[in-house]
Design goal:
Layout (H helix, E strand, L loop, with lengths): L2 H6 L30 H10 L3 H14 L4 H19 L4 H5 L1 H4 L9 H24 L4 H21 L3 H21 L6 H13 L3 H9 L6 H14 L4 H14 L3 H14 L4 H9 L11
Helix pairs in contact: 2-3, 2-4, 3-4, 4-7, 4-8, 7-8, 8-9, 9-10, 10-12, 12-13, 13-14, 14-15
Amino acid sequence: MDARRRIWHGLFLPLIGLALVVRAAPAEPGQALPSTPSEIDAGFRLLYELQPEAGRAQFALWQAAHPQDPLGSASEAASYLFEECYRQGVLTSEYFFDNKRFLGKVAIKPDPKIRAAFFAADLKAQDLARRGLAKDLNDVNALFAMTLSVGMQADYASLIDKQQMKSLAMIRDADKFAKRLLALNPDAADAYLTLGAANYIIGSLPALKRFFLRIKGISGDKASGLRQLEIAAVKGRYLRPFAKILLALAALREKKPEIARVQLKELVAEFPENPLFASELAKLGAAPAATAAP
């Protein structure tokens, strides 16, 4: 197994920002999501299968065919952020249960090449999305791209740079875009990943920190976060597996192993080559082979 492959076996996704529904084609406000798969669908599927370079190749095809669409650049940025988080071992149960790492300030040294590639793609996505919103405030695709890109910057600030207050301000902005998207398209279930992750993480902070955040207009509730994650885990399209792993880890943290076991079994059955899911399921005392049974 080569080094890059091992990197991707370390983990499966940062939480906060990867969160909104993606459209495969232009749609009127409130219109249901297109049913036709696109290169974006294929690219995200490859990310779940631990094939980041192949996933980026799919995103590049989308960008070539849709040069003014911010979705391709946002998806490319996501692949680099995933890669760095895999490299750092973020979002295993060990990391998630360790408050000093999950909510604290343990230093991380990012790969400079991955960092540069991430910010280049992320800023390009924001530039294209802002152009779209300048023409139409209800551009659902642009709203998604802004939520995704701002959310990913929040992830980087929190998980890599350990700039928690800066990250929380970005989460608030991403949250606003998510709510605007849901107002236009209530069926955009992937949007609940952003809302649920933000609610849960902020709700997990110590009471004193939550108090000062409320003064700044930032609030969170763990129970609401779990309910929103459940919606994304059941009804999400591109980010459904992200929601599942996050819901599983949050459920374990809240001492609800039965919820975690269901989510992990489904993930192992759908992505048998992803070792993170099998590893986390094994920690619950359930053999991955059991997922093959109906």
